[in-house]
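Protein Record: Sequence and Backbone Structure Tokens
======================================================
Tokens: labelled as protein backbone structure tokens, with as many entries as the chain has residues.
Task: work out the structure tokens from the sequence, keeping to the layout shown below.
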Amino acid sequence: MEREGIFKLLKNGLPDEETTERLSEVFKVFGDNTRIRILWALFDDELCVYDISDKVEVSQSAVSHQLRILRQARLVKSRRDGRQTFYSLDDDHVKTIIEQVLIHAEEDRR
């Protein structure tokens, strides 16, 4: 859905069931502490599983499992270089979502 269509949808009321279901699925993916930490680790860097595991202090197998979920949700993308796979945020929207939720969450702390 293009940006103009999204603005029209927001202005004209409730989205259809299919749209809210897709949105709900994305929010479910954000509902896990380990996945948030992985996304945070990828904010500015493209990393392999080993480096992500080291940064978030979670086993490589757990990181691989969470990366699979994040890739299915199109929040993370991968790039192969020889035998190594590198992961990065799918686009800047992922970073913006996390930043906006963090800003909102921090408002309560003031």
In short: The mean pLDDT is 90. Helices lie at 3-11, 17-30, 33-41, 49-56, 60-72, 92-107.
